[in-house]
Design a protein that fits this description.
Blueprint lengths: L14 E4 L4 E4 L7 H12 L2 E5 L18 H12 L21 H15 L7 E5 L7 H4 L11 H15 L1 E6 L3 E6 L6 H14 L2 H7 L2 H9 L4 E5 L2
Parallel strand pairs: 3-5
Antiparallel strand pairs: 1-2, 2-4, 3-4, 5-6, 6-7
Amino acid sequence: MVINPNALDLDLPPGTVRVQPSYWYADEPAAPEIWSRLLTAREATGLQPVLLTEKQFPPTGLSGDADDHDPAATLSALWGHVQEIGREEPWAGPAEPGTRTADPDDRAALLADELLTDDKYFTGARAALVPARSSADIVTALGWSGACNFTEAARLASVLRSWEDRFGIRVVGLGPDIMSVSVAAPPRTRGHALAVAREHFAFCPDIVSQGVGSIEEYAEEDVLNRTDWWFWWD
């Protein structure tokens, strides 16, 4: 059972503790500046903050455990899976870590405010606290199945853990098939951005195949110097 933040002396809006999967969920849509309150709750409870567009993620039984997957091997396997016939390119390996330009939690707070005020997909999103070891593990703790037509959440969580280490990411928003993450150490050169874009394509091919059309364009427009990364799976 998730720790009940309502039973603690925390500055949180009214909320409900849900089960299967277990997490705390605010009863009303979130307002800007909610993230700082969620971080205070994280320090008190160990629960990870996130914005959710759905009240409940039905358990799938397919979440698995990120510990069972090596992120480099996972990216390599996914890269091989998504390569187009006739233009196979060898996997070049993971990108080098970025240099942090901000505190990851501060960057996440900024993105949370942006999502709640300017993004149509997260209009009406609720604040949530999830029992997970890290932000990357939120997807498995929730039993999130947004990428189930592509791969299992545990494999994505293993990559997200690696991005936490290398790029200071936080999973800030989740919807039925979308994910928004903040980035505290974004790539600052075109070469670095291209290496990261290749990881993104392996992680979520729709962002390229249904987006700008090429990894190079995606790297330039959506990775270089960007402090937020978006993913969606059809």
